[in-house]
Task: structure prediction
Amino acid sequence: MMNYEQFKETVKENFMNYMPDKFKDMEPLFSQVEKVNSTLNAIGVKGDDTSAFPTIYVNDMYKDYQNGADLETILTAACDVIARAYDEASSINVKDILTNARDNIFFMLINTEQNQSLLSSMPHRPFHDLSIIYKIMVKFDKNGLQAIPITKGLATELKMTEEQLFECAKNNTRRLFPPTVKTINDAMRKVFLSMGMTEDFINKVLDGMPPEPNMWIISNASCINGASSILYENELHELAEKMGSDLYILPSSIHEVVVISAEMGNPEDLAQMVAKINVSEVPLEDRLSNQVYHYDRNLRILTIATDTPNTW
Result:
């Protein structure tokens, strides 16, 4: 089996052999792309008359290779993705996207320490050990979310300050990705439904489980970048009032957080559990923090309750 560097060189040498004929005059280009919590190697094909071009991540292709896929299958699939992306790009009007950007800017939370390089190129706002960053939603359908990260250069083009981005995103994110507060059982029901299980079977499973009135999931209706819902303090306050206590917030991923009564445990012990699960269960690109946060229902303030080292 090839190691990653060998695989990357093999992909580079053979990529164009699998592209459709209409792309044969284009040039394959490798680049490094800053993503949340990591820097990835991307490959794409660029023509003389194209300033922007779709890419695919070699890191993901290598994972398929490690899982047993053969090189020909991997390259064929990757080139098909690139070809389809070019076809879809022809229907995207960048000018319209930028013109309507103020209605489609949303925010998300990422870990500050793990994303110093990424944050250096983006307008952002500190939030404890996290940072708020901004994106423009391009398309959101059954195939997922397409969004453009707002860099400092793009913010300048939009003629928007960080303060303006935040105010836009605060309103838009609630509208585009409405916050949700659910019990663990309700969250499990949604997962089971997505797996194709019948309501009767789900009811039998959940009826046999004890209710967890002191354990909740905060996310959004799409379960994408849902941890940012903790930026809406009113949801935290309503939940704290319902539970009759302060809250501990455990960041299970960038997509959701687990909330429990502050009477249920010690924050240091909870943080150790969060750190362990992050390393063993949560994909690197989805990790948010190893910390535990405390919400005071009387003061209506969210603070960081621990100082756990990042062990990513």
